[in-house]
Amino acid sequence: SAALQELKDRPKVKIHRFPDDVLAKLKILTDETLAEEAANDPEFKRIYEAYQHFRQQNDAWSDISENAYLAIQ
After folding, report:
1. Which DSSP string do the residues of the chain spell out, in sequence order?
2. Whole-structure pTM over 0.85, yes or no?
3. Contacts with 38 (C-beta within 8 Å, 6 or more apart), sequence order
4. Taking the alpha carbons of 61, 66, 69, 73 in that order, is the dihedral positive or negative?
5. What gap in Å lies between CA 73 and CA 63, rounded to an integer?
6. Are 52 and 35 in contact (CB under 8 A)?
7. pLDDT tens track of the chain, all 73 residues?
8. Which of 14, 17, 25, 42 has the most other CB atoms within 10 Å of its CB?
9. Each residue of 21-54: b (16+ CB within 10 Å) or e?
10. What is d(CA 37, CA 48) in angstroms, rounded to the nearest whole number?
C-alpha cells in the first residue's frame, strides 16, 4: 500500500514483524473473544459460523495456490 511504502522510504523507520509468540497469543485472545461474542449474540454466531466455513474452504484453496506461490518468492 502507499502508506507502507511511505514508511519504507523513510530512512529512520525500521519495520518489524510481531514476534511469533505475540501473534500466537493474539490468536488465542481473538478466538476467545469471538467465541464469547458468538455465545451472547445469535446473529453474531450465525455470521461468524458462516465466516469460519468460508475460511475453511478458502484455506484449502490457498494451500495449493497463493501459499505455493508465496513459498517460491
Report:
1. -HHHHHHHT-TT----PPPHHHHHHHHHHHHHHHHHHHHH-HHHHHHHHHHHHHHHHHHHHHHHTHHHHHHT-
2. no
3. 44, 45, 48, 49
4. negative
5. 15
6. no
7. 999 999 999 999 999 999 999 999 999 999 999 999 999 999 999 999 999 999 999 988 888 888 888 888 7
8. 25
9. eeeeeeeeeeeeeeeeebeeeeeeeeeeeeeeee
10. 9
C-alpha cell at 9: 522510504
- Any residues with CB less than 8 A from the CB of 48 and at least 6 apart, and which? 34, 37, 38
Do the beta carbons of residue 33 and residue 41 sit within 8 Å?
Answer: no
